[in-house]
Write a structure and sequence with these properties.
Keywords: Oxidoreductase. With 333 residues, the chain is an alpha/beta fold. It is built from eleven helices and eight strands. The longest helix is centred in the middle third of the chain and has 27 residues. Bound molecules: NADP nicotinamide-adenine-dinucleotide phosphate. NADP nicotinamide-adenine-dinucleotide phosphate binds next to helix 2. NADP nicotinamide-adenine-dinucleotide phosphate (NAP) binds next to helix 2.
Length: 333
């Protein structure tokens, strides 16, 4: 597989060109809309078996039919996964492990953004619970399959966590991640959950790279998708997303461009055996000194998001939270 230079405008299909993923087993969460669909399309085009996981089976079936048609790959499967329910995550993991398949690449892409205060079935604040805790539990459950893939393939297994420039809005409050003792703010909550996605990549790599599992976090760029469903017109204006005529401001990527860094993180030869990084525009990101600098340049990451000590603290907290909330041994084999 050759390695080429890509940039912010590259599309997922451009990035996958020349890669052959025949025999690879891949899961993409949140593959019922937006970036997840185009990520899965590119990976399917390269011949992988791709499991599309999301909560709406009707949407998933339509996406699967479309992907089969456009890629000529019939190894597209759909599986129900509700990341706001640890029971559903557990059921998904059990079904996957029962197939005795390895798992080469897991793309934790699903997400919610800026929603009003609400909670997952297990009582976690919705953005922290869905974007981080759901994916944390899913990944832990799938570790046996990720390990098996690393043992049986010359390449390491990869876990890709979708994050956002929005991580610069907030670090994780390790004492109160669920906003029990502080006022809820939908953007602080989104920022916290997206920082958690990066810290998760850091800790996962530190703890599991010795077993062949590496994880990076990907900021896809700004893309108009269903993710903005909770933003009112006024909020989009206030945050500078649209102009006064309601048009999205320049700088947004197409969905095909938005999926390119996830695909790059999944297949790039230069990333083999590398983890704990924040990737954007099909490349490495720059460490910024403040969230002001990051927002000015619309790029880069903050140091708290890659802090190894805090990454381990979040890991331990997340373990405690899923142990307390879900009495199962599955995640702790
Ligand atoms: N778009 C952007 O500008 C942007 C920028 C930075 C980062 N990101 C990140 O990119 C990722 C993909 O976002 P997108 O823009 O493609 O958004 P999207 O079109 O809204 O897709 C999100 C996906 O996640 C699924 N999902 C949401 N809650 C779920 C749950 N509880 N259980 C299972 N699946 C769930 C959605 O399913 P439903 O269709 O059923 O809702 C959908 O398939 C997210 O992690 C987001 O934070 C996006």
């Amino acid at each position: 597989m050759s390695s080429k230079q890509f940039n912010a405008k590259s599309t997922a299909m451009e990035v996958i060109e020349g890669h052959n993923l025949t025999g690879y087993e891949i899961i993409v969460t949140g593959a019922s809309s937006g970036i997840g669909v185009e990520t899965a399309r590119a990976l399917a085009k390269a011949g992988a078996r791709v499991v599309l996981a999301a909560r709406d089976m009707n949407k998933l079936k339509q996406v699967a039919d479309d992907l089969k048609k456009t890629t000529g790959n019939n190894k597209i499967e759909i599986e129900k996964l509700e990341l706001d329910s640890l029971e559903s995550v557990n059921e998904f993991v059990k079904r996957y492990l029962a197939k005795n398949r390895p798992l080469n690449i897991l793309i934790n892409n699903a997400g919610v953004m800026g929603c009003p205060l609400s909670h997952t079935k297990d009582g976690f604040e919705l953005q922290f619970g869905t974007n981080h805790i759901g994916h944390f539990a899913l990944t832990l459950g799938l570790i046996p399959a990720l390990k098996r893939a690393a043992e049986s393939n010359s390449r390491k297994s990869r876990v890709i966590n979708l994050t956002s420039l929005g991580h610069t809005l907030s670090d994780v409050d390790l004492k109160d991640p669920n906003f029990k003792n502080r006022a809820y703010d939908p953007w602080i909550s989104y920022g916290q959950s997206k920082t958690a996605n990066i810290l998760f990549s850091v800790a996962l790599t530190n703890l599991y790279s010795c077993q062949g599992i590496f994880s990076n976090a990907v900021h896809p760029g700004g893309i108009v998708t269903d993710l903005q469903r909770h933003m009112s017109h006024e909020e989009k204006l206030r945050l500078g997303v649209i102009d006064k005529d309601g048009n999205y401001k320049p700088g947004f990527k197409t969905i095909e461009q938005g999926a390119s860094t996830s695909v790059w993180a999944a297949v790039a030869v230069e990333l083999e055996g590398k983890g704990g990084m924040y990737l954007e525009n099909c490349g490495y990101s720059k460490l910024q000194g403040s969230n002001f600098e990051a927002f000015q340049s619309q790029s880069g990451h903050l140091s708290y998001a890659i802090d190894e000590k805090r990454a381990l603290e979040l890991w331990n907290l997340s373990l405690e939270l899923i142990k307390i909330k879900y009495n199962s041994n599955l995640f702790f084999d």
